[in-house]
Amino acid sequence: MAAVIQTINQFLVSGQYHSILALIKGLRNGIVYGAKVRFPHALVMTFLFKSDSFRNKLITILQATYTHSKNLGLFVLSYKTLTTIMQYVQTQKYQPQSFIAAFCAGYLIFGRYNKVNEQINLYLLSRIIYGLAKLAVKKGYVPKPKKDAFPMFAALVWGIVLWLFEHEKDTLQPSLRSSMTYLYTDSNKWHDLKDFIIHNKP
User: What InterPro entries has UniProt attached to this entry (predicted)?
Assistant: First the structure.
């Protein structure tokens, strides 16, 4: 058995078939990372906010974890496959390759609507807007702020989201709308000491 493991290890580090092995490792890492991120999130959110039987809660958690893991693993595999093919055809790496590969893989995998894909896409949207703003400063398209811009960024984010919640509630994502209702609307209602301090009962 030790000899078999040693042979496999030698094969893996030999560099032979490195591109194909990198695709398999990418698939593996996507699956593992998706499970590590989604399972605790789904566990907490389901038990905190979902009213259902223990069995149904468990099924919800496992389904969300499976979907996240599968989609992230398939995305990594697709992205790495496409970039590898493009680099093979063009003999070297170009910047547009990463965009084209991710665009195609994103359309095929994360373009199918479900709650998990929606959450992942929204998470990435906030990150890329932030990243593009920093890139604009880095490239000189926008002058570098003379003082810390983070307070103004925070003020705009919170100002806009509360304005939307108060006046255009239907435009917000359901989970965000639900959270904000709990925080800002349900806190206006109580009947006795119990639902004032311990249990929220709108």
Answer: Pmp4
Q: Within a 10 A sphere around the Cβ of 34, how many other Cβ atoms? A: 24
Contact predicate 73/30, CB 8 Å: yes
Among 4-18, 53-67, 78-92, where is mean pLDDT lowest? 4-18
Q: How many C-beta atoms surround the C-beta of residue 154 within 10 A? A: 10
The H-assigned helical ranges of the chain are 2-13, 18-49, 54-90, 95-105, 115-138, 150-167, 174-180, 193
Return the domain boundaries, the chain.
Answer: 2-113, 147-202
Which residue's structure tokens are 């349900």?
A: 186
Mean pLDDT of 152-166: 95
Establish how many alpha carbons lie within 13 A of residue 60's alpha carbon, considering only the half-sphere containing its beta carbon. 18
Distance CA(153)–CA(158), nearest Å, equals 9
Residues 6+ apart with CB under 8 A from 43: 61
pTM metric for this prediction: 0.83
Q: DSSP for 21-47?
A: HHHHHHHHHHHHHHHHHHHHHHHHHHH
